[in-house]
Amino acid sequence: FLNESGLYLKNPDRLRAQLGLGYIYILSPDLRDLAKGREHLGDIITKTNTSPEEFSDESTGSEKSAVLMDLRSRAIFLLGRSYHLDRTKKGQEVQAGLEQAQRYYLQYLSEYPQGILKSRVLLYLAQSYLRVGFSEPGRIKDETVDIKKAITLLEEFVNSRDGELDEYYAAISYCLGQIYHLRRNDMKSSVRYLSLALEQGLADYTIRSNALYKTAQIYEKKLNKPNKALQYYRQLLEEFPVDSRVNVVKKRIQKIEGSHE
């Protein structure tokens, strides 16, 4: 079909087919071929840098624009994922791949600030920054313009009413808390965003249990507020009695309580 359908924008079905192949080659574990996926997605981005009037179908101009926008936005998103999910790289190549993923995520947010994939892109953007340099959590790296821009976008989303109602709100808030902890060494801001993750009712088991544990650790070890740490340690035991960290948490509680005697 792709070899016989003529010019890209003369037949939008060709672009849709390429997008489908991009999904398959990038997200399918059994058929993964990142190079092929990126080639198809790159073609979509190149060919959508044009006027929607080039379509040969009978849609209205606005309909053509919507088709182009949807195809292009999803292609940018998938290209970001292709670099984010690439497990074939080692060492510095891993960081280079993550930085490429970040560029595509930021491109999506720049071109489609209210796009349908916005919150998902924000989450993946935050996760990608946590993976860069994550093996050295105590190291504060020089910040680039990109990470400053990313943090601004993440904060704007978390602090918006629309964000509070989004299914990814808790995960994004949690990641933002981790970024302030591990990348900026700003513990008060970290606790603030971890608390926002806990306040959102859609937080899943992993996010909520991790947020409770991280908050307790920061209060105990960074902010020197053992009583606040106790509150979160106890809450973790109450809500997640079979969590893998239960024994560690019990020891922390005993140590804090013992220091008050």
Can you describe what's shown?
This protein is an all-alpha fold and 261 residues long. 69% of the residues lie in helices and 0% in strands. Helix 1 packs parallel to helix 3 and helix 6 (145-158) crosses helix 8 (169-182). The N and C termini lie far apart (77 Å).
Note the topology:
Blueprint lengths: L11 H16 L6 H14 L13 H24 L7 H20 L6 H14 L13 H14 L2 H4 L4 H14 L4 H13 L5 H18 L3 H14 L6 H15 L1
Helix pairs in contact: 1-2, 1-3, 2-3, 3-4, 4-5, 5-6, 5-8, 6-8, 8-9, 9-10, 10-11, 11-12
Shape: elongated
Task: Name the structural class.
Answer: mainly alpha
User: What is Rg?
Assistant: 22 Å
Low-confidence stretches: 3-10, 134-140
Considering DSSP H and I runs of 4 or more, what fraction of the residues is helical? 55-70%
The DSSP helix count reads 12
Beta-strand residue percentage: under 5%
Distance between the termini: 77 Å
Mean pLDDT: 85
Task: Give me the strand/helix succession.
Answer: HHHHHHHHHHHH
Please provide the count of β strands. 0
Sheet with the most strands, sense and barrel status: none
Summarize the structure.
By secondary structure, the chain is an all-alpha fold. 69% of the residues lie in helices and 0% in strands.
